[in-house]
Specification:
This protein has nine helices and seven strands, in the order E-E-H-H-H-H-E-H-E-H-H-E-H-E-E-H. Strands 1-7-6-5-2-3-4 form a seven-stranded mixed β-sheet. Helix 1 packs across helix 4. The longest helix is centred in the middle third of the chain and has 34 residues. The chain is elongated.
């Protein structure tokens, strides 16, 4: 844990994916664990290619419905990834068998999230008793359904979701909307997120205080640990850095 400045907020903004659900593990790593647990016979390089393809496909096409919970989202995402692996010749498998793998990997990831959320809920319960909480997330228009299915909906009366507001991280504008939703000035708002580039940098640009949940990212890159007000490696550390 690194504390660069005393954090005294009046409201807190949380990121969702990679922060609350995986405790700072990038979703690519979680999904790759699922592939390995299911013994899918593809290389990590092939998986990464499929992962990027699926991310871009989902960003451009209305595949995810507003009522889809995370289990359904995972199934749709893994279906796109594995179909890509199949089409590109990385994986020789019949469709029926491939879909069985999709179901197994989706269950693996859903179980992973539910395990992580035990600790995340403790943090949210403690902090929601002290501060108003807001969620700012790059998501597909179904984050409310995801929160509800995991019992998180009661913590976030205010949600700023990229697919709904039409702006995505790392654009600082999405954090300006988050700050406006809190009703406080940016200097009185703490932003908590796992992505240095998508959460910490734009939140600082807006003028917020920040706590970086540093973990296993997608790529190796240089990050300035002096920029955030605090650096933590476990979400459970968060309450101790807030005055």
């Amino acid at each position: 844990m690194i504390i660069n400045n005393i954090i005294i907020p009046k409201a807190i903004i949380f990121d969702y994916g990679g922060t609350l659900d995986t405790n700072a593990r990038h979703w690519a790593h979680v999904l790759w664990d699922a592939y390995r647990a299911a013994a899918v016979p593809v290389s990590e390089a092939a998986f990464r290619e499929a992962y990027v393809y699926a991310e871009r496909y989902l960003a451009k096409n209305p595949v995810i419905a507003p009522e889809d919970d995370f289990a359904v989202l995972l199934q749709k995402k893994l279906d796109i990834e594995t179909a890509y692996l199949q089409a590109q010749g990385f994986w020789q498998i019949a469709d029926a068998a491939r879909l069985e793998y999709v179901q197994a990997m989706a269950r693996f990831c859903d179980d992973y999230v539910r395990c992580n959320l035990i600790s995340s809920k403790r943090v949210l319960a403690e902090l929601s008793a002290r501060f108003p909480l807001t969620l700012v997330s790059n998501f597909y228009g179904n984050v409310a359904a995801v929160l509800s299915s995991y019992g998180l909906d009661g913590y976030f009366p205010r949600i700023i979701e990229s697919a709904v507001v039409g702006v995505r991280k790392p654009d600082p504008a999405i954090y300006r909307l988050g700050v406006e939703a809190t009703g406080f000035e940016a200097k009185d708002v703490l932003v908590v997120g796992d992505s240095f580039g998508k959460d910490i940098v734009p939140a600082k640009t807006v003028g917020c205080q920040t706590a970086w949940l540093k973990g296993e990212g997608w790529t190796e890159q240089e990050e300035d640990e002096s920029l955030p007000d605090a650096v933590i490696t476990d979400l459970a550390e968060l309450p101790s850095v807030i005055k």
